[in-house]
């Protein structure tokens, strides 16, 4: 099994940016990584693999930058020593914060002059509880033969792997060499730069990676796994365990079309390669926009490409989120609102305007769900929330996505339509490419770009949109053409008496697309729970238990539990634990927890499954179920 934390490697870093290093031992072999991070123009040299159980961090810097670098973020790291140009340097760790970790301050042992080159080396050990990493035993993978490692750094977990400036306002590039056993493969958030036999061990392979485009720590990633790949386009491959690879290649076969469509909308794709890695089911998100290597959950493998809009979303992040980035997590909507807007514009180009409108209707319901969950007066439902002493993970919801999209759609209508507003979005990306921005900077540029429409923009209630909790001040009037059939069928069920149930036929849903069936169930979830007799009849007629589309199955199980169908509880808990996507896992656990008869069962199943969950998912579900720290175990 994997022994997390036994890492033996070293890293060199140039100028402002901290480097990072990963290496784990397994029962049979070691997996090692050497990285160099750098500024825009220089690369540092590799110092070679270490021979101890600790990690070594080397920082090469010019004196003008040291005052920015001398404090680094850490979390659950054991700092062993610090050297500056080979001389011992004093270091100190500040007070430990519950989620921010511990600041590491380093003091140079000598005076420095302008232009002097200084190398600072930090030796440290990682912890088995590093929140950025999930270590899977062979039994937790699809193949059941080899261990698996993947990282998930958003929003502030990179500091648990390496001392760094773990902020979206800090961007860097890097070069990496990864040495792994020959039966494993390493992939990273970078361009593949060749491979060779490890000269120090003939049983190992070295993979090289280079990321020449500035990016932020939260989308740094590494995965070490036994994996297969298939080419799905001239600049794209899909990677996964062999059990998923053919399904994934089919599901994501439209990736190149999506990339070209996005380029037509907002300009060239600057990252070179666009690969997709299908992760094990415990991955907590639908996707993660790591440069060059999007992470995707296997819950997207519906078999009919109906859930591939998640890939359009992650592709869009290549411009909004990675190229232009929110400066702090309070401004997260700048990443996600613009990305949802661009994702839906891709859908508009590839399908229709009616499809974009239909998708936006579903997004509005997701926003309502989040506001209802948090509470309409909760400040975390602000578009720009205050996150002072708030863990960004706790603030994660559809609010920055869908409230952000709603604002942009409202502005689109005010400014003259989608073509006009896309001109602004493209210009905004060009103006702020490779940098991090705040909401105020975005707003100032909006007024500059639409200088002939300032009077209209001044009439927008910016305070209500940005800094007021709850639903937006303006509800968009979306086209309901594709939603009308869903609305009609949902209303028929809501109004039906027991004597009317015989009127429902299997053909009711056969004429609906997967997206429309999802919307039909969403509409029912926004009403009072259906009588149990209705839900049982729905299963009898439509056989919704047979659907494997994760979005449909998720909503159907929530509907069943809300109607207090006891037979659905084990199935709902099974879905909550057999995959770890927070979008599904957290609401399913909450639904069962709210079914008072099964509250203890929800807690029991969570505690039994917790060790296999991602640390972020585990921590948030524990809070949802009001499970104290004394009842939980460290991953």
Note down, in words, how this protein is organized.
The protein is of the alpha+beta class and 635 residues long. It has three domains: 10-128 and 156-211, Sandwich (Immunoglobulin-like); 319-467, Neutral Protease Domain 2 (Neutral Protease, domain 2); 480-625, Peptidase M1, leukotriene A4 hydrolase/aminopeptidase C-terminal domain (Serine Threonine Protein Phosphatase 5, Tetratricopeptide repeat). Helix content is 36%, strand content 20%. A hairpin with a 6-residue loop joins strand 15 and strand 16. Helix 16 (550-562) packs across helix 17 (568-578) and helix 17 runs antiparallel to helix 18 (582-594). The longest helix has 22 residues, at 353-374. The relative contact order is 0.07. The model is unreliable at 1-68 and 630-635 (pLDDT under 50).
Structural class determined from secondary elements: alpha+beta
CATH fold call of the largest domain = Immunoglobulin-like
The CATH C-level name of the largest domain is Mainly Beta
Number of helices: 20
Tally of domains: 3
The termini sit apart by 14 Å
Rg, rounded, reads: 25 Å
CATH-defined superfamily of the largest domain: tricorn interacting facor f3 domain
Strands, count = 24
Shape: globular
Percent of residues in helices comes to: 25-40%
CATH architecture of the largest domain: Sandwich
Look at the structure and give the mean pLDDT.
87
Binding site for Zn(2+): 313, 317, 336
Domain Peptidase M1 leukotriene A4 hydrolase/aminopeptidase C-terminal: 481-625
Subcellular location: Cytoplasm
Keywords: Cytoplasm, Hydrolase, Metal-binding, Metalloprotease, Protease, Signal, Zinc
